[in-house]
Amino acid sequence: MARWQGQLRGRPEGGRGGHRRDGGCGDGGARENRAFLRRAVSHIAQQGVTQFLDIGTGIPTAGNTHEVAQGVNPAAHVVYVDNDPILPGAVPGAYAGVGRKI
Prior knowledge:
By secondary structure, the protein is of the alpha+beta class. It has one domain. Helix content is 37%, strand content 10%. It has four helices and two strands; from the N terminus they run ααβαβα. The chain has a two-stranded parallel sheet with strand order 1-2. Strand 1, helix 3 and strand 2 form a beta-alpha-beta unit. The chain starts with a helix and ends in a 12-residue tail after the last helix.
């Protein structure tokens, strides 16, 4: 079974998702990807942007978009979008307290 990028990125970053059989697949790139996301979101939030759209979210990990953006500006809003079929049941409550779910 092929893994979606979000599933591969989640595990090495301390996320609750991923699969044991994925092993070290994507570890280095995943860390670089998440580090870039944190730098970019932080920089943009510091410029006054308060609305974010995270497309291809994947399985939640440490340093999610809302955590970074709201760390700079607590009034920031984030919409997460993904079509990965395992996400709805993979991490129940991962975004609890973040806001509304649609």
